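User: These chains co-purify. Model them together.
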Amino acid sequence: MEYEEPKFFHVMQYAAGADGDVIDMVSGNPDWEPPAALREALREYADLPPGAFQYPPSEGLLELREAIAERRNVDPDRVVVTNGTGEANYLALACAFERAAGDADDAGDADDAGDEALLMDPVYPYYPGKVDMLGGESTLVPTERDGGLDTDAIREAASGDTALIVLNTPNNPTGAVYDLDAIREVVAVADAVADAVDALVVVDEVYDHFDLTGDFESALALSSDRVIVTGGFSKSMAITGFRVGYGIFPEAYVDDAKTRHMLVNVAGARPSQYAVHHALAETPPDYYAEARDLLADRVDAFTDALDAAGAEYTRPEGAFYVLARFDGFPGTMANVKRLIDEAGVAGMPGEAFGTARDEWVRFALVTPRAEEAAERLADYFADGAPDSR
Amino acid sequence: MEYEEPKFFHVMQYAAGADGDVIDMVSGNPDWEPPAALREALREYADLPPGAFQYPPSEGLLELREAIAERRNVDPDRVVVTNGTGEANYLALACAFERAAGDADDAGDADDAGDEALLMDPVYPYYPGKVDMLGGESTLVPTERDGGLDTDAIREAASGDTALIVLNTPNNPTGAVYDLDAIREVVAVADAVADAVDALVVVDEVYDHFDLTGDFESALALSSDRVIVTGGFSKSMAITGFRVGYGIFPEAYVDDAKTRHMLVNVAGARPSQYAVHHALAETPPDYYAEARDLLADRVDAFTDALDAAGAEYTRPEGAFYVLARFDGFPGTMANVKRLIDEAGVAGMPGEAFGTARDEWVRFALVTPRAEEAAERLADYFADGAPDSR
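Assistant: Joint model of the two components:
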């Protein structure tokens, strides 16, 4: 496979090996407490009889699927609990590419889905990696300067070979929260383009609890049988290591997703599912609001300092990240290493996220030292980019 | 995809809906206690700081990989911790089929691995399901009457199109424990057959702790760069729901396996890995020996009753299962349902495991009621098969 070791690990390793004190703004791991009910549920689970330690249903614990379905206002039969949102995205992409494969005997090649995925640029690098693994081709479609969807560009890029369009809102890395109307337009493009098998739209909503605008609407509101929505609890419950995500599939694709999930993973981890189910039932809205407020405060402090540093940036509407551009200091791996060594701040090079933001650096705000990092950046760039001083 | 809902679920559902008391001998879930240290580690984990709840390394917690490597006497770099042995087998099969895919640009089609998998018949049904999902073709190769490897049949079946050969020892469903010399011969076949890319041998050793002969030897002893060994803790620690398995890959395939694992699952569940690591370090050999002795006692009691029922069977050398054949009562789904309704015992129809044992029924011994079930079978068949009475 072509997928190289993510630049993510490369930067993390470099930062870990650096001489001075480095503030990690690379990883997307929340740094705050998980829900108290999650810890309590794990303690409870540890004392359950042996039967509770055996395989959960392949598609996930029924009570968890029902709780997700209730919150998402969908039929529980459409919910497949996965090993994190990552697996849900993998299943969704595989569904889109392989729709005709199971029917190949009846239908012949004419009915095959295409092998192209339209991905928004800048792009979360796992998406093109998964596309490549599944034998598809990625086409990067530029977004608006602020990260919003450019529906005209998507319409122009789409063709009979387009098997699916992948969206992520709130967006990593841009922080954009997509308008539901724009997503509706994208679904209309998916409906219209293909000669034989229409395209699907996969919407990754893993950051849905971190909408800072108050205007986020799930793509499920479109009630489209072309839309697969994925999500999970890694970010909302600050438990990226628990690996509990889910896909909400249109009825026509649920069986394919379940089959692939079973053949790849058999089932997800039951202790994790048990803990998430209890946390979902028992965690008050305040918990989520506090995490969101914490993030909003960090956005304020960090963007104030970016102003002081003379950086260009788009204020994120959601998710965990700020993309920033420093004049004369493009977001290359070399410059990111320089920031680690000379400013004591580790970010992600924009070139890791496709082509649209290769001048930029992504900073993750999931550290209590976000403000301090911003001050370091302001000091470092106080007299302009280092090479132009 | 062609893979149908496993007959497993169908039988389980039928048994659950039956009128009378039914003894479940369908599932492979251990019914005994997990290690005490595993429960204790989960309690500890529940109180760790938030950082411990975030992504483990994609290939698994280092301390767990090192512990596995030490027990398996391999380099830790070869160990990838997976979401159960199921994922490890998936990665291994994918490695075998796609070896040339990454090098397609350099090498052209001539160097592609073939698309055939040789599977032993009777077969654990997930293997052909995975092969089909990966676009390969399964060829079933008969085993000896006692379940042992028929190396001549394997040699005869192998061709330039053979990408891999899958073995499982101790075996589900036959209970056979393969001789290391026979596995060595299979590896020699894999070495010899292919025109361009040699075949790999995948050896699933998930039942390695349930060797009742004392003679089991891991295929790792062959030190072959054609052999991938998979395993896990689902059975040995009685935690099928924790989803902690591993693959031990030859150096040339580790990166491919890690990449696919990352793109599909990102990582496995950290609470599970943490608990397994502690249980591995702190559980005395007695724990494993007691589970094995329990199983051996059940084999004795169950096969005694099969004798009384006039059934044909092979005494298992390992794993959890007994295959039995009752004269005039072939192991069809219909007859298995009849056993549920009329004898109060649920087994798996032999036809679920390929073609070689479709006259047989598989009984799993992971129930405290194994002896009672055997008595019910003896009573039921006391006067011959029901239709011939």
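Residues 7-34+286-380 of chain B form a domain with the Aspartate Aminotransferase, domain 1 fold (CATH 3.90.1150.10).
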